[in-house]
Specification:
With about 190 residues, the protein is mainly α. The protein has a single domain (about 15-185), classed as Tetracycline Repressor, domain 2 (Orthogonal Bundle), CATH 1.10.357.10. The chain is built from 9 helices and no strands. The chain has helices spanning about 15-30, 35-45, 45-55, 55-85, 85-100, 105-115, 115-140, 145-165, 170-185. The protein is elongated, with a radius of gyration of 20 Å. The relative contact order is 0.10.
Length: about 190
């Protein structure tokens, strides 16, 4: 009798692996795809791996939202701050980052927020942090507090709205629109 074949063991997944897959799934399938069994199947592991890292689905959802905040606010602002770039360069880089993205994750999170008050609260927190960051850049350029806030709001709302029209625009159209917006909101202060 031949010895039993050993099957490769399931990969050891970290909490971070689950969160990254959660964000990827959210972007493609929306929040309905954030289920332990679906994610486990995608990752090729058992649901036990999921429950090793998360108490329950609510814990996972909260952690995915925290990761979204980290990826889209904390890491971006820290990276920009570490470059030593001035406010003009930071605004240009932010416009490039928005232009390079598909907008799918932004759309998915905001769709989820329409049916879940906890998600809406996280989105509101992210919006405030992003808007505050943009406002600080415009203040550095010499805009008054009210003008800095108004310009930041214009740039931010255009960027968020951009996520919803991205599928209709070519890459060249997206880049041109964001370049023009960046120049417009800096007018008379840079």
């Amino acid at each position: 009798m031949a010895p039993a074949r050993k099957t490769p063991s399931s990969p050891r997944l970290t909490r971070q692996n689950w969160l990254d897959q959660g964000l990827a799934t959210l972007e493609v399938d929306g929040f309905v795809g954030l289920k332990a069994d679906l994610l486990a199947r995608t990752l090729g592991v058992s649901r036990g791996s999921f429950y090793h890292h998360f108490v329950d689905l609510a814990d996972f959802h909260e952690s995915v939202l925290d990761r979204w905040l980290e990826v889209t606010v904390t890491e971006v602002t820290e990276r920009l701050g570490a470059t030593g770039a001035g406010p003009v360069e930071q605004l240009d880089t932010l416009a490039e980052l928005v232009g390079a993205g598909s907008g799918g994750l932004e759309r998915a999170i905001r769709a989820w927020a329409t049916s879940d008050a906890d998600v809406a609260a996280v989105v509101a927190r992210v919006d405030r942090q992003r808007l505050d960051y943009l406002t600080s850049l415009f203040r550095e350029l010499g805009a008054s507090d009210s003008a800095a806030r108004a310009r930041a709001a214009l740039m931010y709302t255009a960027s968020v709205g951009y996520a919803f029209v991205v599928p209709m625009l070519t890459l060249a159209e997206r880049s041109a629109a964001l370049d023009d917006l960046a120049v417009f909101v800096r007018r008379d202060v840079s």
